[in-house]
Amino acid sequence: MLRLTLAVLAVGFAFVAYALLARFVLHGPVDQRSLEVSVHRVAAFGMLPEAAACERAEGVWHCMAYDDSGGGASYEVKLRPGSSCWDGRRLQNASYEVDPPRELSGCVRRWQWSIL
After folding, report:
1. 69-92 pLDDT tens trace
2. Which region holds residue 59: left if phi is over 0, alpha if psi is between -120 and 50, else beta?
């Protein structure tokens, strides 16, 4: 019984360790959806659950991060060479409530979960 308990605890600890590493350390592949989630997490203008939209044009991503007022900001997002990390520069502020950051940067993570 003690071995079973220890095995269950070890599996639980391994899962929690992987979840934390995948959320904060391990990089994941970049596609439209994963970049939208990453931009939204960094921009964080409001409480909307999925509030970013990205499109790729001429090798550069253009992302719109929305806020709770129905406005937001558009960003030009460039991937760093050989990485899933990115840098964004604000092109236009369309927010009615806040002044969004002029620059954003972040990375696409392997597992982009959140508690909220």
Report:
1. 778 889 999 999 988 899 999 999
2. left
* Residue bearing the bigger pLDDT, 19 or 4: 4
Which of 103, 116, 111, 115 shows the shortest CA–CA distance to 23? Answer: 111
Please choose, from the candidates 93, 43, 92, the residue with its C-alpha nearest in 3D space to the C-alpha of residue 65: 43
Report the C-alpha gap between 65 and 71 in whole angstroms.
Answer: 8
Predicted confidence band at 5 (pLDDT cuts at 50, 70, 90)? Answer: confident
Mean pLDDT of the chain: 79
Are residues 38 and 31 in contact, defined by beta-carbon separation less than 8 angstroms?
A: no
Among residues 38, 34, 30, 27, the alpha carbon closest in space to that of 65 is found at 38
Sheet of 52-57: strand order equals 52-57, 60-66, 72-79, 85-93, 103-107
